[in-house]
Design a protein that fits this description.
By secondary structure, the protein is an all-alpha fold. It has one domain. It contains three helices and no strands. GO terms for molecular function: structural constituent of ribosome.
Length: 65
């Protein structure tokens, strides 16, 4: 459960913005999306490798985006 410390004089918009940032940093939504469907460990590992290769190509300048 997320708890936001709010001052009495603080605007509700600021408190809501703090809550949204804290919620995003807790990665709760990402966990829910991952749990919706099962991905095999081999598939997950393969996607990580492909992403790493893509990042390396961009960093080395071979692939222009």
């Amino acid at each position: 459960m997320l708890i936001i410390d709010s001052k009495d004089c603080e605007n509700i918009d600021k408190a809501l913005k703090k809550y949204k940032k804290k919620y995003e940093k807790s990665r709760t939504l990402n966990q829910l999306r991952e749990r919706q469907s099962f991905t095999k460990p081999s598939v997950r590992r393969r996607t990580q490798v492909l992403k790493a290769i893509y990042r390396q190509q961009i960093a080395s300048g071979k692939l222009e985006d």
